[in-house]
TrEMBL record:
It holds the Pfam family 4HBT_3C. Residues 25-112 form the Acyl-CoA thioesterase-like N-terminal HotDog domain. Residues 131-264 form the Acyl-CoA thioesterase-like C-terminal domain. Gene3D superfamilies: Acyl-CoA thioesterase, double hotdog domain. This is Thioesterase-like superfamily protein. InterPro entries: ACOT8-like_C (IPR049450), Acyl-CoA_hotdog (IPR042171), HotDog_dom_sf (IPR029069), TesB_ACOT8-like_N (IPR049449). It comes from Geodermatophilus pulveris.
Length: 267
């Protein structure tokens, strides 16, 4: 029988958090998927913001080293304060020793803007079929029953977790980010979006690794609603590098795009 998953990705613990099994990534059961990590860093960045009614318009994550499943700490500061525009930095460390806490594993820089009413550009292109027209699917490549793939309800508009090629999927949260508080739409978006290169994989998971070394998300407006979508395609170059680009959606239309650089290596 498959064990019941935890109710949250992270549990508050001391001055940080403890990652639950729902953060386990596809490459190693001892290492976290970067999606929950990205969401936790964005949460911390927004908590130190001096533009409380603002919107986060660009998030750039550098994955400096793998993040183990276990205790983590996050810290944030304003790099560029301002009443209309600000730049926030957040870093994540893991472990309990002083050396561990001095070694950043993932770094975020996020631009936030004060909101103002303007006339939007009409949206072009064909809308992504909604979650009600999409099919449920579970990833087959995770090595443990309880891992990242069970943190979200996945509905595929086209493509598949388990077949190569471009794919588009809708998700809704099946847990919270931090125990005791709701997962915000932006947090949900980041938990989901780092999986863009996974749902649109073009290489065999058993023969090749293609982990992303970064994640950049640019947003036209804040995400809203229960269901969020990602429409992704991956391309692999001839010298061990890959790229994944994705359009990001909520129920009312496209909200932005994401980009990932991939390090490709034969197992």
């Amino acid at each position: 029988m498959t064990p019941a998953p935890p109710s949250a990705l992270y549990l508050p613990e001391g001055d940080g958090y403890r990652a639950t099994d729902l953060t386990i990534g596809p490459w190693d059961p001892a290492l976290q998927h970067a999606g929950p990590v990205a969401a936790l860093l964005a949460r911390e960045a927004e908590r130190v913001s001096a533009i409380p009614a603002g919107q986060t318009v660009r998030l750039a994550f550098d994955i400096l080293a793998p993040v183990p499943v276990g205790p983590v700490q996050v810290a944030a500061r304003l790099l560029r304060p301002g009443r209309r525009i600000e730049l926030v930095e957040a870093v994540l460390t893991a472990g309990d020793s002083p050396a561990d806490r001095d070694r950043p594993l993932v770094r975020l820089t996020a631009w936030r803007l004060r909101t103002s009413a303007v006339e939007p550009t009409p949206e072009a292109g064909v809308p992504l079929p909604g979650p009600e027209q999409s099919r449920p699917e579970t990833a087959a490549f995770f090595t443990t029953d309880v891992a990242y793939h069970r943190a979200l309800d996945w509905r595929f508009a086209h493509g598949s977790f388990n077949a190569p090629g471009p794919a588009a999927a809708w998700t809704r949260p099946l847990c919270t980010l931090v125990e005791g508080e709701p997962m915000s739409p932006l947090q949900h978006l980041l938990v989901m979006t780092d999986a863009a290169s996974g749902i649109s994989a073009v290489l065999d998971w058993t023969r090749t690794t293609f982990a992303n070394i970064d994640l950049t998300v640019a947003l036209l407006r804040p995400p809203a609603g229960e269901w969020l979508g990602v429409d992704a395609a991956t391309t692999i170059g001839p010298a061990g590098a890959g790229q994944c680009f994705a359009d990001l959606h909520d129920a009312t239309g496209r909200i932005g795009r994401s980009a990932q650089a991939l390090f490709v290596e034969t197992r």
